[in-house]
Amino acid sequence: MRVPPELPPALVDYLRQSRVALAIARADDDNHLLMVNDRFCTLTGYEPEDVVGRNCRMLQHKAPNVEPRARLREFLGNPRADSVRTPIVNFRKDGTPFVNLLYMSRLRTIEGATHFIFASQFDVSRSQPELLADYDAELQRTLGRLTPIAGDAGIVVEGTLLTIANSAATVAQAKMMLAGLEIDHRA
Ligand SMILES: Cc1cc2nc3c(=O)[nH]c(=O)nc-3n(C[C@H](O)[C@H](O)[C@H](O)COP(=O)(O)O)c2cc1C
Predict the structure, then answer these.
(1) Where are the domains of the chain?
(2) What is the pTM of this model?
(3) Fold annotation for 9-186
(4) From the CA of 55, how far away is ligand 1's center (Å)?
Protein backbone atom coordinates (compact mmCIF):
# COMPACT_ATOMS: atom_id res chain seq x y z
CA MET A 1 0.00 0.00 0.00
CA ARG A 2 1.24 3.50 -0.88
CA VAL A 3 2.56 5.44 2.08
CA PRO A 4 1.31 9.04 2.22
CA PRO A 5 3.76 11.83 2.94
CA GLU A 6 4.18 13.24 6.41
CA LEU A 7 1.62 15.77 7.57
CA PRO A 8 2.98 19.23 6.68
CA PRO A 9 4.27 20.89 9.90
CA ALA A 10 2.39 24.15 9.25
CA LEU A 11 -0.83 22.16 9.11
CA VAL A 12 -0.04 20.32 12.34
CA ASP A 13 0.80 23.61 14.12
CA TYR A 14 -2.45 25.15 13.00
CA LEU A 15 -4.61 22.17 13.94
CA ARG A 16 -2.98 21.79 17.35
CA GLN A 17 -4.23 25.17 18.53
CA SER A 18 -7.76 24.84 17.14
CA ARG A 19 -10.58 25.39 19.62
CA VAL A 20 -12.50 22.38 18.29
CA ALA A 21 -11.54 18.76 18.95
CA LEU A 22 -9.96 17.23 15.90
CA ALA A 23 -7.97 14.32 14.60
CA ILE A 24 -6.12 13.47 11.38
CA ALA A 25 -5.71 9.92 10.12
CA ARG A 26 -3.97 8.30 7.22
CA ALA A 27 -6.28 7.62 4.31
CA ASP A 28 -4.83 4.11 3.99
CA ASP A 29 -3.60 1.51 6.47
CA ASP A 30 -6.85 1.21 8.48
CA ASN A 31 -6.93 4.98 9.02
CA HIS A 32 -4.37 5.06 11.79
CA LEU A 33 -4.43 8.36 13.63
CA LEU A 34 -1.49 10.68 12.92
CA MET A 35 -2.41 13.43 15.33
CA VAL A 36 -5.06 14.59 17.77
CA ASN A 37 -5.19 18.04 19.38
CA ASP A 38 -5.61 19.12 23.01
CA ARG A 39 -9.36 19.58 22.63
CA PHE A 40 -9.67 15.98 21.45
CA CYS A 41 -7.78 14.86 24.58
CA THR A 42 -9.99 16.98 26.84
CA LEU A 43 -13.12 15.55 25.21
CA THR A 44 -12.10 11.89 25.26
CA GLY A 45 -9.79 11.72 28.28
CA TYR A 46 -7.13 10.00 26.13
CA GLU A 47 -3.59 11.29 25.66
CA PRO A 48 -2.08 11.44 22.15
CA GLU A 49 0.14 8.43 22.98
CA ASP A 50 -3.01 6.38 23.79
CA VAL A 51 -4.52 6.92 20.34
CA VAL A 52 -1.92 7.90 17.71
CA GLY A 53 -1.17 4.88 15.54
CA ARG A 54 -4.58 3.36 16.29
CA ASN A 55 -7.98 3.53 14.57
CA CYS A 56 -10.42 5.94 16.26
CA ARG A 57 -13.06 3.20 16.44
CA MET A 58 -11.43 2.40 19.78
CA LEU A 59 -13.68 5.15 21.19
CA GLN A 60 -16.73 3.01 20.42
CA HIS A 61 -15.90 0.24 22.90
CA LYS A 62 -18.57 -2.39 22.34
CA ALA A 63 -21.36 -0.07 21.10
CA PRO A 64 -22.88 -1.60 17.94
CA ASN A 65 -23.29 1.76 16.11
CA VAL A 66 -24.48 -0.20 13.07
CA GLU A 67 -25.96 2.69 11.10
CA PRO A 68 -23.34 5.38 11.79
CA ARG A 69 -20.48 2.96 11.11
CA ALA A 70 -22.05 1.98 7.80
CA ARG A 71 -22.25 5.69 6.86
CA LEU A 72 -18.62 6.26 7.85
CA ARG A 73 -17.45 3.21 5.90
CA GLU A 74 -19.43 4.37 2.88
CA PHE A 75 -17.73 7.78 3.06
CA LEU A 76 -14.26 6.27 3.47
CA GLY A 77 -14.83 3.81 0.64
CA ASN A 78 -16.11 6.38 -1.85
CA PRO A 79 -13.35 8.68 -3.13
CA ARG A 80 -15.98 11.02 -4.57
CA ALA A 81 -17.63 11.62 -1.19
CA ASP A 82 -16.25 14.84 0.29
CA SER A 83 -17.58 14.74 3.82
CA VAL A 84 -19.86 12.96 6.24
CA ARG A 85 -21.50 13.89 9.51
CA THR A 86 -23.16 11.53 11.96
CA PRO A 87 -23.84 11.09 15.66
CA ILE A 88 -22.08 8.00 17.02
CA VAL A 89 -21.87 6.47 20.49
CA ASN A 90 -18.41 6.83 22.02
CA PHE A 91 -16.85 6.41 25.46
CA ARG A 92 -14.27 8.49 27.28
CA LYS A 93 -11.18 6.78 28.65
CA ASP A 94 -12.89 6.46 32.05
CA GLY A 95 -15.83 4.61 30.41
CA THR A 96 -18.32 7.51 30.43
CA PRO A 97 -20.55 7.30 27.36
CA PHE A 98 -21.34 10.26 25.10
CA VAL A 99 -22.89 10.89 21.71
CA ASN A 100 -20.16 12.18 19.42
CA LEU A 101 -21.30 14.32 16.52
CA LEU A 102 -18.52 13.26 14.17
CA TYR A 103 -17.56 15.21 11.05
CA MET A 104 -15.06 13.86 8.53
CA SER A 105 -13.67 15.22 5.28
CA ARG A 106 -10.81 14.54 2.89
CA LEU A 107 -7.46 16.23 2.51
CA ARG A 108 -6.40 15.58 -1.07
CA THR A 109 -3.35 16.37 -3.15
CA ILE A 110 -3.74 18.70 -6.12
CA GLU A 111 -3.79 15.55 -8.29
CA GLY A 112 -6.86 14.35 -6.40
CA ALA A 113 -5.47 11.51 -4.26
CA THR A 114 -6.73 11.43 -0.68
CA HIS A 115 -3.77 11.24 1.69
CA PHE A 116 -5.34 12.24 4.95
CA ILE A 117 -8.76 12.24 6.58
CA PHE A 118 -9.72 15.20 8.76
CA ALA A 119 -12.22 14.66 11.58
CA SER A 120 -13.77 16.75 14.31
CA GLN A 121 -15.60 15.48 17.38
CA PHE A 122 -18.24 17.14 19.57
CA ASP A 123 -20.17 15.83 22.58
CA VAL A 124 -23.67 16.69 21.40
CA SER A 125 -25.29 14.76 24.25
CA ARG A 126 -24.00 17.15 26.93
CA SER A 127 -24.53 20.28 24.89
CA GLN A 128 -27.16 22.94 24.30
CA PRO A 129 -28.48 24.14 20.93
CA GLU A 130 -26.52 27.45 21.22
CA LEU A 131 -23.30 25.60 22.03
CA LEU A 132 -23.79 23.32 19.05
CA ALA A 133 -24.29 26.42 16.86
CA ASP A 134 -21.09 27.95 18.34
CA TYR A 135 -19.18 24.73 17.69
CA ASP A 136 -20.40 24.66 14.09
CA ALA A 137 -19.26 28.25 13.56
CA GLU A 138 -15.84 27.45 15.06
CA LEU A 139 -15.45 24.30 12.95
CA GLN A 140 -16.41 26.33 9.90
CA ARG A 141 -13.70 28.89 10.80
CA THR A 142 -11.15 26.10 11.35
CA LEU A 143 -11.89 24.62 7.94
CA GLY A 144 -11.83 28.05 6.32
CA ARG A 145 -8.40 28.94 7.70
CA LEU A 146 -7.11 25.44 7.05
CA THR A 147 -7.73 25.85 3.33
CA PRO A 148 -4.92 28.38 2.59
CA ILE A 149 -2.49 26.74 5.06
CA ALA A 150 -3.01 23.30 3.52
CA GLY A 151 -2.92 24.88 0.04
CA ASP A 152 0.63 26.13 0.69
CA ALA A 153 1.60 22.49 1.28
CA GLY A 154 -0.15 21.32 -1.89
CA ILE A 155 -3.17 19.91 -0.08
CA VAL A 156 -6.77 20.62 -0.98
CA VAL A 157 -9.36 20.61 1.81
CA GLU A 158 -12.48 18.90 0.50
CA GLY A 159 -15.94 19.05 1.93
CA THR A 160 -18.22 21.73 3.13
CA LEU A 161 -19.69 21.69 6.57
CA LEU A 162 -23.37 21.00 6.29
CA THR A 163 -24.58 22.89 9.30
CA ILE A 164 -27.14 21.27 11.53
CA ALA A 165 -30.58 22.32 10.32
CA ASN A 166 -32.22 21.91 13.71
CA SER A 167 -29.72 22.15 16.58
CA ALA A 168 -32.43 21.84 19.23
CA ALA A 169 -33.76 18.56 17.80
CA THR A 170 -30.23 17.17 17.32
CA VAL A 171 -29.26 17.94 20.92
CA ALA A 172 -32.57 16.63 22.29
CA GLN A 173 -32.19 13.36 20.38
CA ALA A 174 -28.61 12.93 21.59
CA LYS A 175 -29.67 13.56 25.19
CA MET A 176 -32.29 10.84 24.90
CA MET A 177 -29.69 8.46 23.51
CA LEU A 178 -27.33 9.34 26.34
CA ALA A 179 -30.02 8.73 28.97
CA GLY A 180 -30.44 5.20 27.57
CA LEU A 181 -26.68 4.64 27.53
CA GLU A 182 -26.28 5.84 31.11
CA ILE A 183 -28.91 3.35 32.26
CA ASP A 184 -27.02 0.54 30.44
CA HIS A 185 -23.71 1.86 31.80
CA ARG A 186 -24.93 1.67 35.41
CA ALA A 187 -26.53 -1.77 34.97
C1 LIG B 1 -9.68 10.84 11.19
C2 LIG B 1 -10.74 9.92 11.71
C3 LIG B 1 -11.32 10.21 12.93
C4 LIG B 1 -12.32 9.39 13.44
N5 LIG B 1 -12.86 9.70 14.66
C6 LIG B 1 -13.78 8.88 15.18
C7 LIG B 1 -14.33 9.16 16.46
O8 LIG B 1 -14.02 10.15 17.09
N9 LIG B 1 -15.23 8.29 16.96
C10 LIG B 1 -15.63 7.17 16.27
O11 LIG B 1 -16.46 6.42 16.79
N12 LIG B 1 -15.14 6.88 15.05
C13 LIG B 1 -14.22 7.71 14.50
N14 LIG B 1 -13.73 7.43 13.26
C15 LIG B 1 -14.35 6.35 12.45
C16 LIG B 1 -13.70 4.99 12.68
O17 LIG B 1 -12.32 5.09 12.60
C18 LIG B 1 -14.19 3.98 11.59
O19 LIG B 1 -13.94 4.54 10.32
C20 LIG B 1 -15.67 3.67 11.71
O21 LIG B 1 -15.89 3.00 12.95
C22 LIG B 1 -16.23 2.78 10.58
O23 LIG B 1 -15.43 1.67 10.35
P24 LIG B 1 -15.56 0.25 11.09
O25 LIG B 1 -16.97 -0.19 10.97
O26 LIG B 1 -14.56 -0.60 10.36
O27 LIG B 1 -15.18 0.47 12.53
C28 LIG B 1 -12.74 8.25 12.73
C29 LIG B 1 -12.14 7.95 11.49
C30 LIG B 1 -11.16 8.79 10.98
C31 LIG B 1 -10.55 8.45 9.65
Answers:
(1) 9-186
(2) 0.94
(3) Beta-Lactamase (3.30.450)
(4) 7
